[in-house]
Here is the input.
Amino acid sequence: MTEQSLSVRDAIIQRRSIKLFNGELVDRDTLVSIMEDALWAPNHQMRQPWRFIAACGEEGLTELHELLKEFGIPKWKELSEDALEKQMQKFKNPGAYLFVIVPEDARQKERLEDYAAASMLVQNIQLLAWEKGIGSCWKTPGFLDNPKFREALGVQSGERIISMFQVGYFNEAPQPKPRKSIDEVVTFFGNQK
Here is the structure.
């Protein structure tokens, strides 16, 4: 998929979660450009409750792959080299990674607002990347909360990783899945016709 000019509506409707990346790397400048524009996401009281840990380029991804192998492949030391390589493809095929991190505010209202704002930021990233022909997928594997993984990644006390966000180029977009109709999800309040 190549970069194209999309209307907002087209980007929203055409975007898909990509799980089959083709292994082509996403360069740092492209990733930074997407993130810079995504920062315009609405957020409560301009708290801007997010930060990223990014991995791109061969060196950054090689280091991250070792970390993902350690925490994402159970009993990886017991696997044959071929079996390990096959399981690692799910981590090696994306062309870059973004870990989206938010503060863990003790106040529930603020914590929920921060999560919602960061989710809008992620949607911005998805749409901006899609326009550039780059797919993405929001992942939440259980090891994101592992204290040793958090420490190795550089996540601070009082922060939470809400997404292991995979981004990358792809050869084919999946077909759209059906959505509920508007009649199934909207109730008009009062005596409206």
Summary: The longest strand covers residues 159-168.
